[in-house]
Amino acid sequence: MKVLVINCGSSSLKYQLIDSESEEVLAKGICERIGIEHSCIKAKNPVLGKEVKTEIDMPDHGVALKQVIDALLNPEFGAISSLDEIDAVGHRVVHGGEFFNSSVLVNDEVMKKIDACSDLAPLHNPANVLGIKACQELMPNVPQAVTFDTAFHQTMPSKAYLYGIPTKYYTDYKIRRYGFHGTSHSYVSKEAVKHIDKAVEDTKVIVCHLGGGASVTAVKGGKSVDTSMGLTPLEGMIMGTRSGSLDPAVVQFIADKENLSVDEVLTILNKKSGLEGMTDVSSDMRDIDAGYKNGDPRCVEAFESFCYSCAKLVGAYAASMNGVDLIAFTAGIGENDNLVREHILNYLTYLGVEINPEVNAATHGVEAELSTADSKVKVYVIPTNEELAICRETVALL
After folding, report:
1. Which pTM value belongs to this model?
2. Among the options 149, 226, 325, 337, which is catalytic?
3. Which string of DSSP letters, residue by residue, matches 38-52?
4. What contacts 396, CB < 8 A, 6 or more positions away?
5. For residue range 38-74, what is the model confidence (pLDDT) as tens digits?
6. Catalytic site includes residue 284
């Protein structure tokens, strides 16, 4: 079965065409700057080893998807000769609210519920809806499935997802912790338990998804029981451009001092804070690493704060599960930055974590065990693969 996986962002559209039996990626690419000047599509055929970048006007996601189809059908670097070869389409949707605790096949009712969650993810859910509708128009007879970033975390108990605010705000507006990166946390935790000599229901795993956006999740018995992101992806640890958790009064304080609206302050906390705001250098950890090694004081502070904020969450989740069997690092920073991993793990020796420094230093983007044989807690790098996870979910539904 050939499954087309679509991941729509507010101004981007990533895709992969996957053979579900071999799990081989037949084609992949990204449409960037949708609705913005100088939009382009980067298309790659891994089988042929060909990659093409084309600048073309893409005013909306519908036009972008047509470019994806054209790339898939291209006689020189395409992967299929007809749309009839696509057996199903799997979509990533950011927010499913309390409506969805698993992947589902698309129908009118599902579309209404996704749209109803748009106020919880205003930059993403509307784009996700546009992507689904565009696929329905181009491939009306092909089944469409959706996988939600929030679904994996719907197993959290109320003690983990409720905020200490008047109950009416939850009952009336569903204000609660939802969590994100669920597809990644689900995939990585499932891979992690393969390395634990216990029945899945007895396992305790902590997944550190560290990228431009970063979150930590406690997975007990294969289910998410707590996670660091909240109503939105702003909560939790320090990230690339997001502040992470802070005293809510900071919003009013900045608004009053700078004569800004709440929306303007939230834009600062989402897009101009985190590593970028703390350093005025970059939101990219590779740049922060360089500044850290050179002794730039602001990079040192940002680097150490990032690692500290992650380590605190790992400690909290070890306490919440009354132990931990395995800690997994994933995503761009988690998979590739041995310096970040080293600093985080240095806080965790009280758990009995013992690391092989040579293996950690040599591990970049591949699965590897970082812990020694004597370590009481296993530590692994496990590369995430959200597109493959969506493909698997889609096939399972069919």
Report:
1. 0.90
2. 149
3. T-EEEEEETTTTEEE
4. 103
5. 899 999 999 889 999 999 999 988 899 999 999 999 9
6. no
